[in-house]
């Protein structure tokens, strides 16, 4: 269960649609799907924003959607991992083989982890939290016994900056500061706990206008989400 004191602090920092322009839509932040967002690929999603490898696209990794596969199903030589660390998570529709029931594209695999210092293959997200992408980089992290907090992710989400800004402004997402305890805690009730805080903030500020549900544009393996103009 996420610590109550942490949730209280995050509720105070929740950004509603009216304040989205004041926020940096890159990182370090977490997106929380509002109840209005009914897209099956992102419904109930909690997304950590990470440095993008394909500018000008913004990138994020869903951290609360476990797949059926275990880490050792994809990396048989990996050390034994327990609990949430041992599960593969569905990070989003881009480069995610799980979406059509295939073995995930290992080049679309990434890992979020905590470390006292950076590895050559990793990029710092915030504080002591890093992300590494690609089969070899993930395998290297999994071999390091010093790393105890990690999440192996298949696929990612990505947007153009204006697209994501529009989604936040229309009420699709809450934004909160990124915290390691949220990323590496039990993901089971993470969305419901955070969205209740967002509902409370909206009740105090007044409910935003009805959400225009987005449609998706598929171009190869690159999904980009757009807001309908009507």
CATH homologous superfamily identity of the largest domain: VC0467-like
Question: Could you spell the SSE succession in H and E letters?
Answer: HEEEEHEEEEHEEHEHHEE
> What general form does the structure show?
globular
Distance between the termini: 40 Å
Can you identify the CATH class of the largest domain? Alpha Beta
Number of domains: 2
Instruction: Write down the CATH topology of the largest domain.
Output: VC0467-like
Structure overview:
This protein is an alpha+beta fold and 230 residues long. The chain folds into 2 domains: 4-62 and 158-226, VC0467-like (3-Layer(aba) Sandwich), CATH 3.40.1740.10; 66-157, VC0467-like (3-Layer(aba) Sandwich), CATH 3.40.1740. The chain contains 6 helices and 13 strands. It has helices at 4-13, 71-74, 135-143, 161-169, 180-184, 190-205, and strands at residues 29-33, 46-50, 58-62, 66-70, 87-90, 109-114, 122-126, 129-133, 150-154, 157-159, 173-177, 215-219, 222-226. The strands form 3 sheets. It has a 6-stranded mixed β-sheet with strand order 4-5-9-6-8-7. A 5-stranded antiparallel β-sheet has the order 10-3-2-1-11, with helices on both faces. Strand 7 (122-126) and strand 8 form a beta hairpin. The protein is globular, with a radius of gyration of 17 Å. The chain starts with a helix and ends with a strand.
Write a brief caption for the model:
This protein has 230 residues and is an alpha+beta fold. Helices cover 23% and strands 27% of the residues.
């Amino acid at each position: 269960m996420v610590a109550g004191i942490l949730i209280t602090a995050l509720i105070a920092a929740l950004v509603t649609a009216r304040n989205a322009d004041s926020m940096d839509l890159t990182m370090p932040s977490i997106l929380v799907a509002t109840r209005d967002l009914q897209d099956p690929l992102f419904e109930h999603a909690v997304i950590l924003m990470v440095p993008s490898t394909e500018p000008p696209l913004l990138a994020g990794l869903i951290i609360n959607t476990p797949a059926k596969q275990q880490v050792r199903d994809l990396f048989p030589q990996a050390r034994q991992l327990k609990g949430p660390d041992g599960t593969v998570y569905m990070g989003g529709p881009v480069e995610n083989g799980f979406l059509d029931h295939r073995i995930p594209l290992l080049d679309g695999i990434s890992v979020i982890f905590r470390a006292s210092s950076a590895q050559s293959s990793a990029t710092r997200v915030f504080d002591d939290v890093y992300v590494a992408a690609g089969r070899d980089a993930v395998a290297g992290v999994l071999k390091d016994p010093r790393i105890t907090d990690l999440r192996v992710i298949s696929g990612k989400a990505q947007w153009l900056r204006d697209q994501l800004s529009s989604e936040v402004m229309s009420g699709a997402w809450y934004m909160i500061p990124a915290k390691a305890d949220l990323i590496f805690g039990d993901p089971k009730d993470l969305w419901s706990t955070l969205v209740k805080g967002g509902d409370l903030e909206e009740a105090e500020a007044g409910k935003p206008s009805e959400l225009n549900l987005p449609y998706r544009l598929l171009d190869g393996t690159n999904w980009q989400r757009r807001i309908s103009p009507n």
